[in-house]
Structure prediction request, 400 residues.
Amino acid sequence: MIYIIGGKIITMTGEVWEKGYLCIENGRIKELGPMKDNAPFPLPEGEKTQVINALGYVVMPGLIEAHCHMGITEEKKGMEGDDCNETVDPITPYLRSIDAINPMDAAFDDALRAGITSAMIGPGSANVVGGTFSFVKTHGRSIDKMLVRSPAAMKIAFGENPKVNYSGMGKSPATRMAIASMLREELFKAQRYYEKKCAGMKREEEDFRYECWLPVFEGKIPMKAHVHRADDIQTAIRIAKEFKLDITLDHCSEGHLIAEQIKEAGFPAIVGPDLASRNKIEVQNMAFKTVGILNKEGVKTAITTDHPVSLIQSLPICAGLAIKAGMTEEEALKAITIYPAQICRVDKRVGSLEAGKDADIAIFDDLPIRVSAKTMCTMIEGKVVYADKSFSLPVSEKNV
Prediction:
């Protein structure tokens, strides 16, 4: 049994206790609540208990990155470590990110040092359909043991990236019309396959190329749409509505220009990487105000670094810059905790401090949205996976 006591606990479900406690058992949160001022904390008698004194610190759920490529586009490894895009065929839904995520990538350690305990990781946006994402914990050496959900989403892409990649090869897609048409054709074929599967398809009729679409048509996972420009956002929404499929609007750089339409569509937005440069035409209107405008309109929003486009450890700073551009502090913190958990469909396990959830916890010396804030301790499923050397980790065992 592990107790974290004395810290300011921000649950991300509405409760904030200036001085609270949290009990962890078997990797999950057993109980939590406020503490009485100047009263001794009643540790359970007769049990071996570890105590972490968090007095003066902020205790939060581990932060969540809702869209990135760490471990697939590895740092400092060039082509040898870049497995982000299979740039030979614009339609590759059968690719699985789990087969390319390398937990040895230095970005995972950077994530832990920033209090980021889980991330949605998958292929890039060179292809119209790129393959499936996986939602993983950020600590471990075996990706199979780090998995929370796989497949977690099907990557699709609109706009410049597929155009630039394939028009240079003298093949489709060279226009936005072709991107939309190729996606529709793929979804049309996948839908027919799904209908045959539901009708009792024989085993010898099964097709590896379309089996990967079944979770999408069953409503178990969304399509994950790379969209920056307003017209691309609306095309993605149009196609999702045509086929009655769920979708997340990733990047959504011009979302603030059509916030009302996005709200009406009912799909969530994963906004960013606003800390990166405007190095493409389609991101010319990129701004930190976007996520706050969408949030105020009523769109469920998460913030992304799109690592390595901007570095994974900048996630809480991006939330801080969103506050500077008009987002409320509470909503910005939710945009890197509970909202990405809900958008990625893993909120039964992570994203908030609640009894029964995974004990993925970050302890900071200040709110992480502040540049000067330090991560003092990061825990995943009750295990300390990072501790700052100044934190004097008082994980002391007591028999009481």
